[in-house]
Amino acid sequence: MVPTVKTLSDVQAIYHALKNSCETQVQGRSDVIDLILVALFADGHVLLEDHPGSGKTTLAKALGGCIHRATNSDPRFAAFRRIQFTPDLLPSDVTGTTVFDPNRNQLTYQPGPVFANIVLADEINRTSPKVQSSMLEAMAEKQVTVDNVTHPLEDTFLVLATQNPLDQAGTYPLPKAQLDRFLFKIRMTFLSRDHELQVLAMKYPQCREDGHATSAAQSTREPDASPPLITPESISQARKVIQDQIKISRSITESLVEIAGRLRADPRVAQGISTRALVVTIPALQARAMMYGRDFVIPDDLKALSLPVFSHRLELQPGIASSDTIVEEVTLQVIESLCRDSLK
């Protein structure tokens, strides 16, 4: 019997279990893990801009491995699947296709790899716009339509898409309309020296300083308590608890709208952020508040999430290189004004 998630303490237990499991397999990515878990609890999707070999597949597999599906659950779905996007990929390779079943003498639908709780869309910008658009319905509506028949996806559906920021040969850059479907765009950098040494020591115990591999008893510490059983249903329940029990004041929502207005009016911006961006930011702020043990959203939550939420949604004027500085400047101005008003 899977325990019901009813309180913020239950949600925090799920969060800590997910984070601990991911951190044991992926070194030096604590901040990225937190943002991905915010997206999971906020029912959003994530675009990772990274270099090859940075651990994105390991991280996605680690997150998918935390989700336990019941033996009697829908066999079409899996906890984790990976789609390697290439120029010759077809939309049916993502969503599935209808094939003739000679045993039953009829056409049957064979679901594609998008039928999973965690989907790694690897190098999504290496495939054609037609294939990229096949992901849009799944990401926005949690469903796929094949031969005029709509097939629903599960509520716990998260896309982790990746793209290489340097190698642009043979790529199809994502248009702004598609970028807007991602809650976060996270730019990953190379690991620090210490974390890279930890990765090598985990993979090759003989690389440890003392030259000896530690035993399993020495290398793993006893957990404080049994981690909760995490199922797609428990994540859906956690989202409902966060939505109902994390308070967000009107001053925070007004600041969010103010940031949007200033970004749209900024002369360096050709096209500002959409209203949809504001809508999806609210559950992300609530999820971050939960992670820090609060039942209310504070300006620090808005400050921490503004860059990964807004930066990739801006269309800049010619000659403007980066949107990060613009978002940071505008967010800081609004938050400082919010803090001054609260002291009056």
UniProtKB/TrEMBL annotation:
Protein name: ATPase RavA
Stretches assigned to the ATPase AAA-3 domain: 45-184
Gene (UniProt): ravA_5
GO MF: ATP binding; ATP hydrolysis activity
Residues of the ChlI/MoxR AAA lid domain: 263-329
Organism: Neorhodopirellula pilleata
InterPro entries (UniProt xref): ATPase_AAA-3, CbbQ/NirQ/NorQ/GpvN, ChlI/MoxR_AAA_lid, P-loop_NTPase
Residue segments, region Disordered: 210-231
CDD domains according to UniProt: AAA (cd00009)
